[in-house]
Amino acid sequence: MITAVWALFSVLFVTQVYPLVWLLLYSFKSDEEILDGSFFSLPNKMLWSNYSNAFVSGNYLMSLFNSILVTGATLIVVVALGSMASYAMTRFKWRYGGLFMAAFMIGIMIPHQSVLLPLLILFKNMGILNTYLALILPYIAFAIPMAVFILSGFLRSIPYEMEESAFMDGASVYRLFFSIILPIMKPPIMTVVILTFISVWNEYIKASILVSSSELKTLPFGVYSFISQFSTNYGSMGAFLVMSAAPVVIFYFFMAQRITRGMVAGAVKG
């Protein structure tokens, strides 16, 4: 039994880690080495020039800034609105609470591709097409349902007696939420932050349609800087992909344990 478990973990480790190792080796190879089909071979010479070329020609800093701005703004709004909406729908007894919760859950099931054309027309009429808002608003809209799902599941596990005693001591709803409930919600909030960060940082389809200016492009578009009509710089493209993926890998590596804690905390009840 133990052997089978270790074998399973070994297979999972190889399938998950190998693509990252392969991409790292890919980024140091010349175009000739890449095109000869030797996927498992080490580079004959470590071409650090691929990284310098990716940094300069790929406008890495500008794309990095755009990704940080869009992702950061999305995270702030999603955490703020998601936590308050979850608290209102799970802790207050009001007539339409269940209806609003159902609407959020339906939002999880809506395919992103099905709303791209309506969003394109809507944002064009609003005059915000090809701006940061054209990216941030859809990212917020699609991230909040999952945030509500995770946070509301956690809030249902918190006993009401804690709030009742605070109310009896004269605490207002806002004081109760910000001083008592919000600190307790740190594990699931970290889960929401990490999952939203990864999805927004790597998002491509909406950004490719709603933004056309090269000055607003995020990191997933940097690879096109190395593709022309007659040639492709594969080595620099690989280096740019490594630099684009590095923040996500580092962020996830340090925060992975918090994801587990948040998921377990939100699954205690309901």
Helix proportion range: over 70%
Overall pLDDT level = 83
Summed up, the helix count is 12
Helix and strand composition category: mainly alpha
Rg, Cα atoms, Å: 23 Å
Secondary structure: number of strands: 0
Q: What CATH first level of the largest domain would be assigned?
A: Mainly Alpha
Which runs of at least 5 residues are low in confidence (pLDDT < 50)?
266-270
User: How many domains is the backbone divided into?
Assistant: 2
**Beta-strand level of the residues, as a percent range?**
under 5%
Shape: globular
Major sheet, described briefly?
none
**Gross CATH architecture of the largest domain:** Orthogonal Bundle
End-to-end separation in angstroms reads 33 Å
Query: Which homologous superfamily in CATH is the superfamily of the largest domain?
Result: MetI-like
